[in-house]
Every structure is written in C-alpha cells, then in structure tokens.
Amino acid sequence: xxxxxANTEAGTxxxxxxxxDQFQTYVRQNGEPLRAAGFSNNELALMGCLAEDLQRAxxxxxxxxxxxxxxxxxxxxxxxxxxxxxxxxxxx
Length: 92
Description:
elongated
C-alpha cells in the first residue's frame, strides 16, 4: 500500500498524504479482489467515499494555489539576487 502514500506531508502530521487518484483507481478497479479478501460491500463503499473526499480536498488545494509562484526559500533568494526571473502574477 506504500504506492498510495505521497512524499508530500499531510498537514503537519509528519506523515505522507494519500495519493487520492491512485487510491480511487485501485478501489474502482479491484472491487472483486477486495471483496474476496474479506471487505464487505459497506466497507468498499466507504473506501470509495474516502477516495472521492480526498479528490475534493485536492481540488480545493489546487484551486487556491498560485500558478508560477515561488514556493521555496531557495526560489525566493534567487529572485531577490536576480538569478531567476520573477514569476508573473496570474491574470484575473
């Protein structure tokens, strides 16, 4: 199941976040094997709901992320020193 864990930290937990797209695809494509492994229909439905909720959360995060914006201290330092071009503000 490590293929579902991202390098990106989930909040400030110190734990990798779940890769919602891969988790959702796995649950959708492996319903029968999961059922054969002992998961009930209710548990499979819950896994599907979890995957959809994670997808909505990622959509919310992506909607507020600034495009072409620096996100690391190293990038900011390079911009201040003139080593990199300053990112342009998104047009509204």
